[in-house]
Every structure is written in structure tokens, then in C-alpha cells.
Amino acid sequence: MRKTGKGGGESATPSLGDRLIAGLESVVEALQSGEPLEKRLTVRAVKLDLTPREYGPDDVKAVRAKLGASQVLLARFLGVSVQAVRHWEQGTRPVPTIAARYLDDVQEFPELWARRIEAAAK
Predict the structure, then answer these.
(1) Mind spelling out the 3-state secondary structure of the chain?
(2) Its pTM surpasses 0.70
(3) How far apart are CA 92 and CA 121, in angstroms?
(4) 88-113: per-residue pLDDT in tens?
(5) What is the maximum alpha-carbon separation in the chain?
(6) Contact, 66 vs 110, CB < 8 A?
(7) What is the C-alpha end-to-end distance of the chain, expressed in Å?
(8) % of the chain beyond a pLDDT of 70
């Protein structure tokens, strides 16, 4: 328990450290008992869809237009060649997954990326 200032008494709220220790002790007890953890502890499964969307030529052009960036500037910013951006916009090559993640992020937070593009252009 957490100690308070002047009187040195214990507070009603356990400290974070006390809560962590108690939680770890519960896990150890559950493991030692041989019971499935789900019976003694709250077990959560989180499902994340981390697949970026697919970008076609018009999508890449739209993202670039949203930023007001040239092909050269977008390529420089993404760390790819200008030819790569051209190929994406012409549809002759698919947008790689890592670039699609950036483009997803640009779509979600255009103001942030516009500021970064402006800073990179200076």
C-alpha cells in the first residue's frame, strides 16, 4: 500500500507497483495450479487488421494532390525513386505494402503529412 505524507498511514488506493505485483502473483498462482489461465484470469484477444488498402494509379495521384506534392517531392519524402511513383501512377507497378501504409496514414492525417512535406521541401 502507498504511504501518505505526514502521518505515514496507508492510503486506501494501492500504488501501481502494488497492483502490478498482485497481478503477477495471480499469474504465478494460476500457472502453478495447472488450471487454464482463462478460468482464473481475464484473457483478451485483440484482432487487428493491419493490411493497408490497395492503391491504384488514381488513388496515388489523389493522395499526391491532397498534399500538393510533385512526384519528385513525394518520391523524395517516401524514400523511393521518382520512377517508382510514376510507375504507381501509370499502373505499371503495384504500390508496395510499406508505401501503402504511408499513403493510408496520409489519407488519415493529411494535415500532419502536409506539414512534413512542406518542411522537407525547404
Answers:
(1) CCECCCCCCECCCCCHHHHHHHHHHHHHHHHHHCCCHHHHCCCCCCCCCCCCCCCCHHHHHHHHHHHCCCHHHHHHHHCCCHHHHHHHHHCCCCCCHHHHHHHHHHHHCHHHHHHHHHHHHC
(2) no
(3) 27
(4) 999 999 999 999 999 999 889 988 98
(5) 75
(6) yes
(7) 55
(8) 89
Residue written as grid cell 488519415: 108
pLDDT value of residue 29: 87
User: Which cell goes with 15?
Assistant: 500504488
Sequence letter at residue 74: L
Cβ neighbours for 97, distance < 8 A, ≥ 6 positions apart = 52
pLDDT in tens, 44-71: 888 888 899 999 999 999 999 988 889 9
Residue showing cell 517531392:
73
